[in-house]
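Input sequence (95 aa), recorded before submission:
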Amino acid sequence: MGDMSQHQIELARHALGLPNRRKQSYRNHFVTGPGAPDYDAWAAMVADGFAKEYRATVLSGGDPVFILTPKGATAALERGERLDPEDFPKQVAHG
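Predicted structure, token format:
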């Protein structure tokens, strides 16, 4: 398991709805499928324990849905940001 690349951090931040004025995440999902530009980065995050992949459904347009793990979400935070306690009840703010 390695660290997240800068590109993976950017994808994770997008999945969390960061940055925003509240400095708090408000979602945790990213939809992408095989052949799409971001799919391989998400697959690597799954392999490294930073995300989980859920099967494609009609609601996701036929593509898998990726959800960050607490480890992945925390790694994407910048100083002064925090995770929504509703999505991550046991996580703390970053710095």
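Checked by second reader. Strands lie at 30-31, 51-54, 65-68.
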